[in-house]
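Exercise 7.
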Amino acid sequence: MTKNNSELNEDRFAFGANWQDYLNVVNESRVEIAKRSLTEALRLDDLTGRSFLDVGCGSGLFSLAAHLLGAKVRSFDYDPNSVAAAMELRRRFAPDSDWKIDQGSILDKAYVAGLGVHDIVYSWGVLHHTGAMRHAIIATSTLVAPGGSLFISIYNDQGLASQLWWRVKRRYVRSGPLGRRALVLAGGLYFNTRRIAAVTAKRMCGQPVVRTVRPRGMSSRHDLVDWIGGFPFEYATPEEVFNLLRERGYELSFLKTCRGGLGCNEYVFALPS
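Solution. The predicted structure, written as tokens, is:
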């Protein structure tokens, strides 16, 4: 499950800077999409009375969504710029809330020991960027209260393709501004070519082409930069994630895969009382 991660403190993408830029496009519509994403996966329309822990909160968008759904929210992130982004989002949309935000790492045993347990523990697209994914998943699993839920997403293992993307991402974090810009432009061309080919194939087969809203309230531009540069980078098959958490008493209650392709598989696990 773990793939080539050793020198990762030096080779790390500026996730927080990308999230701070993303705040420029956050609006009520994106917040509503984020709320729907949470309720659909958790199968809950109301989080009132539940505690919600956001592990690696990034922009804070989903912490905000959980707060607006009634949860008592605590968020943390390793990157101080992500912490600042979440605080700014709180200032804009929930200035009088009891939503708590601080800086911390899921790999810091002392910090994790002080977090307690929560009804819902959420970590979307984070644990595979720590440089120690398996350890991070296990540490996150200790933060769920009996009867609670663990909602995580992990990059899908595509074999050789994932190994090649690992190299692209490492090249990005080791490049200067011009090299990084070239990699993002090349990545955009690659994904646009794939999209056009998929649309053409659908039309040739007589299938409808439906324009979809960006999932989870995200931004295509910021997602592209995050994907090209997002290092450390690890990945796992659904079976690996399922087996790791089943060994710790969890039961799978929701699964959304990327159908063997590029992207994250989403999991919601329940911890029996």
